[in-house]
Automatic annotation (TrEMBL):
Part of the binding-protein-dependent transport system for phosphate; probably responsible for the translocation of the substrate across the membrane. This is Phosphate transport system permease protein. It is a multi-pass membrane protein. Belongs to the binding-protein-dependent transport system permease family. CysTW subfamily. Coiled coil: none annotated. The keyword Transmembrane applies. Residues 65-291 form the ABC transmembrane type-1 domain. Its main location: membrane. The keyword Transport applies. Keywords: Cell membrane, Membrane, Phosphate transport, Transmembrane, Transmembrane helix, Transport.
Amino acid sequence: MAVLVARWFEFLSTAAGVTILVILAAVAGFLIYSAWPALTADISELQAISWFNGDSLLGYILPLIFGTLLASIIALAVAVPLSVGIALFISHYSPRRVSGVLGYVIDLLAAIPSVVYGLWGALWLAPTLDPLFAWMTSYLGFIPLFEGYQAPARNVLTASLVLAVMILPIITAVSREIFLQTPRLHEEAALALGATRWELVRMTVFPFGRSGVISASMLGLGRALGETMAVLMILSPGTLFSFFLLKPGQHQTIAANIAAKFPEASGLAVSTLIATGLALFVITLAVNMTARWIVSRRSEFSGAN
């Protein structure tokens, strides 16, 4: 009986894994099939679309890819240090009662719908950041990144800060669990050698959890790349290769662009939007494959070793 149960479990597990691969292949096939008319269309046909503003399909997609990557990388740069600090505080510094409450609050942030984050960013965060951005342009405007701010703060930096808040719970939760799995013997050995709390974290927790933090960061990056409603509600769109973080009308992300254009699109316009979605699919797949490769390279820090 036990052998029969084990075989059925093996069969169901294999079937579940194969199902995931089939679904992934089906999504990729749908995107390629639906985007094919745009991929093979003549430029004159594409330019007949009212909102198409490139000299080729690639020329239309590349600024959207740039805006997507720029917003996501800024969000990741803000969220990762904060997330690691919060995770360390919960796992190694805070009292048990405080860590339980704080962990619950972090998990609760992950359950808030993105449209709520969008409303918060557009109605509260943007007006709050307005004096700061004006000061940055006045005193740091000689740096091109902070040049040319125009109120209201509907720029890529505001959108990135909202994305940072959205991905912070994911990175924090995964990092916290990784830090809590640090072998107790490693920590006790460090303390026995006279290590301070920070030295313990630096010598045992960080080396053990490095691959986990990287994986958590990649998960957060995947969330930021595909975020739609929050960016759509905050960002003043533009299709430029621009590093002016405070200027409106400079950037747009792929997901927000699809959400904005799709309701009125038809025919070749739909295929063009799906082609941009195919580009986002490839980027997200590359991010996840990179995360898996990094984790496999650092398998020596697995808690089982």
